[in-house]
Amino acid sequence: MQGLLFSADQHPILAEAQESVPQAVFTTNTKARMTKSKKGIHSSENVCFFGPFHLVNDRIITMLPTLGFIDMYSLMIFLGIVACFAYLEIYYGKKKAPRLLISAFEINGIIAIVMGFVFANLFQNLYDFIENPSAFAWSWSLTFFGGLIGGVLSFLLGYFLVIRKKFGPQMRDLLVIAPASIAVAHGFGRIGCFCAGCCYGIETDSWLGVKFPGMAHKVFPTNLFEAIFLLILSGVLLFLALKKDFAFNMPIYLMAYGAWRFGIEFIRGDHRGSFVGSLSPSQFWSIMLFLAGIGYFVFLLIRKKKAVIA
């Protein structure tokens, strides 16, 4: 991520933070595009990090607790990746798969995660460019669907070029456990978003609302809502994988998350760009995800029926 340097006189929020914690170092990473306007420097996307603080739409949020230089967002991302691989270990361990095969999947998975972050950034910049080409400036913002698409493509490339040639067809089992692994990693990531104060919802007076530090009003904690949904979904999918070896796990994930994400976008309060008509980028990809789930569900039903007849 790109390092930024701002002095306190460039932004009043930074001056406020420097008064609170003079030792704070305001050179850090960014997840959002910073633009200049008559009002000064501000964030047009989600989050800008400043040492132990970060700026969300001109609000100071503290990412606590921290473990040395590790903030909660980064910690949750790490724990999500660990949980993802733990699911793989549990599932393939139960099936008594060769250790070499499991390791091959994990190495391929690590590469896919790295490529996922790359594509998450590329897609967000594409959305920003489509929305306003004249004001476009490269950012280090991330979007989940871009990461999902890039990560899946990378994993499939490694699977067909290496794993399938060495170990034979393994796709059936992979499609059983992969949805649970993706969902649990994503769920921990959303907890990180809650701790970071990004990916939040619209203003509300509901008892469900959360007032993040620096906010004048409560907002729906859509990040936390999604974390809960994803962790429950991952638990259900893991149970089905271990107890039933359920071939329909993938279409369940595609339809469930597609429907959930499409709906929750209506109460998201952070700006994430536009894509097709009035749809947000995530709503567009949610529709694609849901349709893919229906298609795969029908395919599995037809294949199952043919197998019974045969």
Describe the fold and architecture.
This protein has 310 residues and is mainly α. It folds into two domains: 4-62, no CATH class; 72-309, no CATH class. Helix content is 59%, strand content 7%. The chain has eight helices and seven strands. It has helices spanning 12-20, 72-94, 99-131, 144-167, 171-196, 222-244, 249-264, 281-309, and strands at 4-5, 27-28, 34-37, 40-43, 48-50, 53-55, 60-62. The strands form three sheets. It has a three-stranded antiparallel beta sheet, with helices on one face. A two-stranded antiparallel sheet has the order 1-2. Strands 3-4 form a two-stranded antiparallel sheet. The protein is globular and about 60 Å long. It starts with a strand and ends with a helix. Residues 1-61 have low confidence and may be disordered.
In short:
With 310 residues, the chain is mostly helical. The protein has eight helices and seven strands; from the N terminus they run E-H-E-E-E-E-E-E-H-H-H-H-H-H-H.
